[in-house]
Amino acid sequence: MAATSAFRSGLFNHKVAIVTGGGTGIGKAIATELVELGCNVVISSRKMERLESAAQELKEKIAPSSHASVTPITCNIRNEDEVKTLVSAVLKRYGRIDFLVNNGGGQFSSPAEHMSSKGWKAVIDTNLTGTFHCCKEVYTAWMKENGGVIVNIIADMWKGFPGMAHTGAARAAVDNLTKTLAIEWASKGVRVNAIAPGTIISKTAMENYKEYGPTLFKMSVPFSPAKRLGVPEEISPAVCFLLSPAASYISGATIRVDAGQSLYHSMWEIPDHSAWPEAPEGENLDTLRELLNPKSKL
Ligand code: ADE
């Protein structure tokens, strides 16, 4: 059965949202729920073909009586001029921007020691600088005068992000950016919050990881207290909540939507080794040695 919003129908009638990365995965689920709630949604990403097909899919779900609409607009969020063009196109078409959901991003897995400077910069540029571009442009062009709500989608990087240092650093930075903007823009009636999803499986994520997808996703199941992965439709309600008047007193917050995954154990295996520096000599180190290599009492 298709997911149906827990929120009241018409909740976002006459509102306008931009969802970056809105054509696939979590972004598509957010766009779908916003549309279901009557919102006019602009989905944006770099690839028009994917956007067009997602927009078509979303449009088919809009009831004739609904106020909702979907508009696909391409934009590379790394490029400030393209972000400016996106925001002005949305204002031209709809005359307002109530919500910005910064979901667009990307990364690849690699140990830090093998990451090239180019690869590192590309991920920082998309996930951190791209988010900054979108926040700044939507704020200066609309929200500074009219208020609004911003939700940044980050990640479970609370224990570092071994295997994806670049995205961990970028998402942690967006967590901090969220707090800064929540304070700097409070006096203009702009709320800024973030959602940190746990491991989420989607059709597109599986396709992106190609033949490694099934192994990667299956491997992560035991690391969730839920003993299953999440789906994008379990992230979008938290976003809708933060965008809604039910969250009118919430700003600068990051909500973990991860079934407690971030409180549980890390997937990164540390092999047994003897490379660690010795502890200082003394009775306590003797106790430690005795624990590990008990002397025979015979
Ligand atoms: N999703 C992934 N990379 C992106 C980019 N550079 N611009 C917009 N959406 C993206």
Describe this structure in words.
With 298 residues, this protein is of the alpha/beta class. It has one domain: 3-Layer(aba) Sandwich (Rossmann fold). The chain is built from 9 helices and 7 strands, in the order βαβαβαβαβαβαααβα. It has helices at residues 25-36, 48-60, 80-94, 117-146, 165-184, 203-208, 213-220, 236-243, 283-292; strands at 16-20, 40-45, 69-74, 99-102, 148-153, 190-197, 254-257. It has a 7-stranded parallel sheet, with helices on both faces. The N and C termini lie far apart (69 Å). The relative contact order is 0.13. The mean pLDDT is 96. Adenine (ADE) binds next to helix 4.
Furnish the topology, listing elements before pairings.
Layout: E1 16-20, H1 25-36, E2 40-45, H2 48-60, E3 69-74, H3 80-94, E4 99-102, H4 117-146, E5 148-153, H5 165-184, E6 190-197, H6 203-208, H7 213-220, H8 236-243, E7 254-257, H9 283-292
Parallel strand pairs: 1-2, 1-4, 2-3, 4-5, 5-6, 6-7
Helix pairs in contact: 1-8, 3-4, 4-5
This protein binds adenine.
Brief sketch in words of this structure:
The chain has helices spanning 25-36, 48-60, 80-94, 117-146, 165-184, 203-208, 213-220, 236-243, 283-292; strands spanning 16-20, 40-45, 69-74, 99-102, 148-153, 190-197, 254-257. It is α/β, with parallel strands linked by helices. The protein has a single domain (16-270), classed as 3-Layer(aba) Sandwich (Rossmann fold), CATH 3.40.50.
